[in-house]
């Protein structure tokens, strides 16, 4: 048997599936998971689908001490005619490798991992929910497992993929959110790990998140770590501004995640002949545009929400109301187009989806 | 039974202990470990000493995805007259809580954790090696364990303490190292997690470390993330410079770890009436001092090495040789004093040590 041939151990005990669209995010997991191991002399080996079960690791496993880990997030959607679609999964696997490079984690064979992913989702296809707005969230992640306290890259790794049925991000449709422009805490800086999907970038944001929640705001808009002036991301999403008919989004500076929804939106806007620019965007510029009545729309983009319209930006007490707190026309059109492609109701002229 | 009363389950299968001072760092673990759990409604509870054994966690446990974790590192030393000493462990536990605050992890009761630590080390006292330069490395760590993919603080945690006998940091005594001044990668920035002992700060350094190793250098000197000009730390140690008779070390800016060896050195220098200043130190200033022949000594400080003399700094090709690549007089004196106090051969006038 080749070490790249997948083995499957089926779970005899099937769990009950969600019976409505009210599914809490990331708390229910399917019956199986994918696992593959890495050792220096064997490379990635023993790809296998096994029952979803606890992981057993030495307490000295490096993941617990030095955070050598990367992850991805994507979704499988069920179409009206009962097909299952993935949205640009090749981009996620490519980004997984990019993140791994930054964290000194060995690269995976992207095509093989795609095959394994599809095999897993095929086996778990009944878990892709068919209620409105629901999907099956896919979480690939790699962890360093060597039991050693030396501050050095792990010699062994585990790649796992777990699946979780999830409800609609916005209950009752798209809903604009209020966002705090964060001035105290920093998410990332040039030369750091901001462009990588790695664990440490997320828990380091909890204090700023908690501060926003206390003020009744939904999320955080991060500024650059150097001048605290240039806009980076919102929460764990990228951000776009429509100013006087033109769309702008912060350029990938090295500290911003290269979002796949972000990329898709830029491609759609090009196709629609709507001017879109990736460049440095300062919070002062946004405030000026707001004062001049030219800040037309603001929206976050990411796998979870696809488009998250921003109804208000709170910058040191200055409250910028955007589009009267309502969903902008472009935000709605982008949302409808991308979710339509993802769910098979809008023609996929870009070949973004893959059928499982 | 009070929830803070420790229970002990003894390990019937004792492992062989190291038979010489040649012990690889952080690869051998003792027979027992300490574990304590946290749940929102119970607080920290069920403190227990159990056989060292694998941890079983859900693959969705938050530690694997969002890196909510903190740790500490300290050592137990065996004295000539067979007592076991800890060096300022109260400071480590205090710092654990500081780190936890930044990572939104619940605080521990510092006095209780100290009692648990001492209980564990007492039980494992035969594991404190008596070969020259050896010690028992102590690794407390806390991980978020809730099985959930929501980007939010975990509702459950585990605090664990594992112990590892370690050999001398420098084989054959103190040895100056060559260090690369890192210009591309960034360790931390104001508003980030640089002051916390948290996993993500360590794996994010691996690429810079690898670059230094390729050039035959032992470690990395980090500059600030904003101007890439001010000195922060070396590797995972703090750094000191002796310039024209005066000792300077970077001030704690929010992105530098508050080292316990660093603190102890500053206190000793004050006591010895040697001028010592905590302030911003730029790499240009160091280069100027070097050119003027005033850069007398450079050394890193940390739990692992205590003092690590720097024999050469490599800054974009400029090689600064320090003290002819030899150990400075002050570095040696600080090393002898602190290791002497730690091992009970120098009088502990500051009450830094605690006998187990």
TrEMBL record, chains A, B:
Keyword annotations from UniProtKB, A to Z: Amino-acid biosynthesis, Aminotransferase, Branched-chain amino acid biosynthesis, Pyridoxal phosphate, Transferase
EC number: 2.6.1.42
Cofactors demanded by this protein: pyridoxal 5'-phosphate
Residue numbers carrying N6-(pyridoxal phosphate)lysine: 197
A GO biological-process term: isoleucine biosynthetic process
Reaction equation(s) it catalyzes: L-isoleucine + 2-oxoglutarate = (S)-3-methyl-2-oxopentanoate + L-glutamate; L-valine + 2-oxoglutarate = 3-methyl-2-oxobutanoate + L-glutamate; L-leucine + 2-oxoglutarate = 4-methyl-2-oxopentanoate + L-glutamate
Keyword Transferase included in the entry's annotation: yes
Gene Ontology terms for molecular function: L-isoleucine-2-oxoglutarate transaminase activity; L-leucine-2-oxoglutarate transaminase activity; L-valine-2-oxoglutarate transaminase activity
Enzyme class, spelled out: transferase
Pathway the protein takes part in: Amino-acid biosynthesis; L-leucine biosynthesis; L-leucine from 3-methyl-2-oxobutanoate: step 4/4; Amino-acid biosynthesis; L-isoleucine biosynthesis; L-isoleucine from 2-oxobutanoate: step 4/4; Amino-acid biosynthesis; L-valine biosynthesis; L-valine from pyruvate: step 4/4
Matches recorded under NCBIfam families: ilvE_II, PRK13357.1
Designated name of the protein: Branched-chain-amino-acid aminotransferase
Species per Swiss-Prot/TrEMBL record: Halobacillus salinus
């Amino acid at each position: 048997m080749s070490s790249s041939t997948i083995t499957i151990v089926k779970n005899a005990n099937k769990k009950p599936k969600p019976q409505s669209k009210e599914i809490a995010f990331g708390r229910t997991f399917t019956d199986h998971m994918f696992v593959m191991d890495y050792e220096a002399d064997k490379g990635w080996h023993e790809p296998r689908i096994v029952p979803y079960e606890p992981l057993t690791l030495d307490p000295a496993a490096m993941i617990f001490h030095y955070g050598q880990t990367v992850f991805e997030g994507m979704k499988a959607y069920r179409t009206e005619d009962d097909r299952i679609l993935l949205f640009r999964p090749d981009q996620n696997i490519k980004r997984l490798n990019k993140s791994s490079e930054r964290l000194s984690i060995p690269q995976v064979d992207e095509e093989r991992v795609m095959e394994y992913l599809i095999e897993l989702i095929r086996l778990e296809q009944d878990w892709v929910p068919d209620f409105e707005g629901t999907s099956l969230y896919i979480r690939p992640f790699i962890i360093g497992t060597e039991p050693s306290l030396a501050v050095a890259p792990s010699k062994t790794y585990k790649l796992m993929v777990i699946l979780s049925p999830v409800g609609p991000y916005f209950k009752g449709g798209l809903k604009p959110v209020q966002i705090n422009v964060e001035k105290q805490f920093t998410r990332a800086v040039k030369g750091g790990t901001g462009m990588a999907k790695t664990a440490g970038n997320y828990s380091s944001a909890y204090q700023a998140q908690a501060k926003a929640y206390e003020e009744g705001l939904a999320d955080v808009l991060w500024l650059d770590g150097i001048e605290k002036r240039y806009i980076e991301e919102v929460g764990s999403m990228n951000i776009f501004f429509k100013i006087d008919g033109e769309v702008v989004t912060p350029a990938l500076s090295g500290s911003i995640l290269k979002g796949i929804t972000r990329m898709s939106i830029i491609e759609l806007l090009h196709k629609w002949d709507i001017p879109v620019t990736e460049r440095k965007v300062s919070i002062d510029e946004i405030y000026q545009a707001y004062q001049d009545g030219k800040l037309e729309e603001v929206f976050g983009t990411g796998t979870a929400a696809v488009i998250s319209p921003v109804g208000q930006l709170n910058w040191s007490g200055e409250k910028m109301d955007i589009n009267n707190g309502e969903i902008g026309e472009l935000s709605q059109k982008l949302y409808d187009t991308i979710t339509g492609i993802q769910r098979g109701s809008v023609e996929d002229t870009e070949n973004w989806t893959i059928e499982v």
